[in-house]
Write a structure and sequence with these properties.
Radius of gyration: 20 Å
Distance between the termini: 30 Å
CATH architecture: 4-Layer Sandwich
Strand content: 15-25%
Largest sheet: 9 strands, mixed
Number of helices: 6
Structural class: alpha/beta
Order of helices and strands: EEEHEHEHEEEHEEEHEEEH
Number of domains: 1
CATH topology: Purple Acid Phosphatase, chain A, domain 2
Shape: globular
CATH class: Alpha Beta
Helix content: 10-25%
Length: 359
């Protein structure tokens, strides 16, 4: 089973505020004690996304800590070059089945370090590898709140999100607003982990409706706002899109990864483009796909998101490491994008070993 986590950004029109200015009470702001996230005076707002960082892989091998250090350097470089107004960590922050239980939450300190240093506000969604025997979504969120002053990640109200999916929330961005929902999925903790459903729980659909109703009451008609949504695992409805992707209309990788490996003698070897099954949108790669009979279980969430979040400009997903294309989903008439992986040479050693066995 896989993990449920989604985030949407919604844009507010109205008074101009300075970046990170202390907010005035508006009756609905869920962060009364945090700086207000705002657009630049020129009306622009840049979001940088780091997806599938997979920190904590194989800490007992030389390559695990090396990959983590390289991912930190990547984040530092991107943040310095892009100078974003906001960042999103779009799921699978940690490979929870590979970490050590006794110190798994402290990996969050390493991940958010570049964001803290750059003083960039951010939110996290969570993925299937964030719900594993050695870590949970809730533990990651609690640690992030403790060590990152500009983290806007929070837990959902009681009863929203189902088992293992506490990370459903929205974040106002003035003159815009942004938010996050959470798919659960992954596995429970302990010696005998149990699979967690991989779709956004139906309770999230009702929560979206109630929250957007409250936004309209506080801020006026929803047509005055825009939104972006971030989700770690793509909704089931996206599966049909992959067959329609063309390089001309949808530039970017489509199920391919450029794999580079280090040999024992420390020289790089170019392997080439490898089509990975996890990047083909089928079983295990989309919401509610662990069991084909569950194919519509993410439907209440998907319908509610597209019905009640007006001016939804795009839905951005991670999970499928070799996908980075955008396409318009015809049923809901919404743009869907993959953001590819950001972690350093993710799963490269595992893929190399499987290729060596096959040859």
């Amino acid at each position: 089973m896989i993990s449920r986590s989604i985030l949407f950004l919604s844009v507010l029109s109205g008074a101009i505020a300075l970046p990170h200015a202390k907010p005035k009470a508006d009756g609905i702001n869920p962060y009364p004690d945090k700086p207000r996230v705002v657009f630049k005076p020129d009306g622009t707002f840049k979001v940088t996304v780091f997806s599938d960082l997979h920190f904590g892989e194989n800490p007992w091998d030389w390559w695990g800590p090396e990959h983590d250090a390289s991912s930190v350097k990547l984040m530092q470089t991107v943040l310095a070059d892009e100078k974003p107004d906001y960042a999103v960590l779009n799921g699978d922050l940690i490979t929870g089945e590979n970490t050590f239980r006794e110190n798994s939450t402290t990996i969050i300190d390493i991940i958010v370090g570049p964001l803290n240093d750059a003083k960039v506000p951010f939110s996290s969604t969570h993925g299937n590898h964030d719900n594993q025997p050695n870590i949970t979504h809730l533990e990651e969120t609690q640690r992030e709140q403790l060590v990152a002053p500009l983290s806007y990640t929070r837990v959902a109200p009681n009863g929203v999100g189902g088992a293992g999916g506490p990370g459903n929330y929205w974040v106002p961005v003035y003159r815009n607003a942004n938010g996050d929902f959470s798919k659960t999925g992954g596995f429970s903790t302990g010696q005998n982990p149990v699979g967690v459903p991989d779709w956004v729980d139906a309770t999230v659909g009702e929560w979206i409706k109630s929250e957007t109703t409250a936004m309209e009451a506080a801020w006026g008609p929803s047509e005055k706002r825009g939104a972006l949504a971030f989700v770690h695992i793509p909704p089931h409805s996206i599966q049909a899109l992959q067959a329609t992707i063309t390089p001309e209309k949808n530039p970017g990788l489509n199920g391919e990864l450029l794999i580079i490996f280090l040999t024992a003698c420390c020289t790089f070897i170019y392997i080439g483009h490898v089509l990975l099954p996890a990047d083909l949108l089928g079983v295990g790669s989309i919401q509610a796909s662990g069991d084909l009979s569950n194919g519509k279980d993410d439907r209440p969430f998907w319908d509610s998101l597209n019905t009640h979040v007006k001016n939804l400009h795009a839905v951005i997903s991670g999970h499928d490491h070799g996908n980075e294309w955008c396409a318009r989903e015809p049923e809901k008439d919404v743009i869907f994008c993959f953001d590819k992986h950001a972690g350093f040479v993710l799963f490269s050693v595992k893929v190399l070993k499987s290729l060596q066995k096959a040859s």
